[in-house]
Structures are given as C-alpha cells and as structure tokens.
C-alpha cells in the first residue's frame, strides 16, 4: 500500500499532553536531607574530600561541590537572551487572555505585534529589533 506524501495536509495531528510534569526525582525529601547533612559535614570538616563525602552520604558529587562553594543554581539565574522581562511577559499573557475572552484566536501575528509594541515602548532606539517567532516560545511552521 502506498503511503501518502509528507505534507501539511496528510500529517497526523499531534495531541498535546494534558498530564502534569513528573516530579524531579533528584529533589525528594530524603535526597535533600542527605545533601544538607553532607554540606554540614563538609563545613565541620573542611579538609574532607568531596568525592568521599558524596559517596558516603549517597549524593551527587557536583551538587555537593556547588553547594559547598556557594555557586549560583542555574535555575534561579536570569536568562540573558530574553527580550521581555517578567512583567512584560505577564502583560503579554493578559493580552492573550483578553483576546480569548473576546472569542478571538490569539494568532502569532497578534502576539508578535504586541511583543514588538512592548519592546518599542521601552526602547531608546528609533527602531528596536523585531521579535521573531522562535522567541515566542513555540515553533510555528506553515504548510508549503
């Protein structure tokens, strides 16, 4: 049997999962407690080797090293390539909700224009760089 060509018309639609993200297995209360005990041991014994302490307490060596050296967690660091700050993203989300409440579809062009307007309002240049589709957080592809 012949397969249909791979174009936008014959592609099966992907269903979005409505399930919540699974919890992080590395941040269970037992592991967090073991990591805190290992940190306390390292602070009381500064000459102890991190690898041996991590093996003894059953924690990851790199996680223990970062905590002992007071390095910044990557999850809390602000992304340097974001065009919109948190307040501007909230404003954009409210705009999308307002469109939804008016029974209008939130098209990519509407959201892009709104993001460009926000950027232009705070920009010191006469023409700020436009927002691309990839910066909106989801990939958009048009059928050929």
Measure the end-to-end span: 25 Å
Uncertain segments of ≥5 residues (pLDDT<50)?
Answer: 7-17, 140-144
* Total helical elements: 5
Portion of residues in beta strands equals under 5%
Radius of gyration from the alpha-carbon trace, in angstroms: 24 Å
Mean pLDDT: 76
Would you kindly provide a written description of the structure presented here, covering whatever features stand out?
α1 runs antiparallel to α2 and α4 runs antiparallel to α5 (108-122). The protein starts with 28 loop residues before the first helix and ends in a 22-residue tail after the last helix. The protein has five helices and no strands. Among the domains are: 27-75; 86-136, no CATH class. It is mostly helical and 144 residues long.
What is the strand and helix layout of this fold?
Blueprint: H1 29-44, H2 50-57, H3 61-68, H4 86-101, H5 108-122
Helix pairs in contact: 1-2, 1-3, 4-5
List keywords for this structure.
144 residues, 5 helices, single chain, mainly alpha
Short description:
With 144 residues, this protein is mainly alpha-helical. It contains five helices and no strands.
């Amino acid at each position: 049997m012949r397969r249909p060509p791979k174009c936008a018309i014959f592609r099966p639609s992907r269903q979005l999962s409505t399930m919540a993200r699974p919890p992080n297995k590395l941040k269970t209360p037992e592991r967090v407690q073991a990591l805190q005990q290992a940190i306390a041991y390292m602070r009381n014994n500064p000459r102890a080797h991190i690898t041996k302490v991590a093996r003894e307490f059953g924690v990851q060596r790199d996680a223990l090293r970062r905590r002992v050296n007071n390095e910044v967690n990557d999850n809390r660091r602000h992304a340097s390539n974001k065009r919109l700050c948190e307040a501007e993203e909230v404003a954009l989300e409210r705009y999308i909700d307002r469109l939804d409440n008016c029974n209008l579809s939130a098209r990519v062009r509407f959201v892009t224009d709104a993001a460009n307007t926000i950027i232009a309002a705070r920009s010191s240049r006469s023409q700020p760089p436009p927002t691309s589709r990839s910066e909106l957080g989801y990939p958009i592809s048009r059928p050929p």
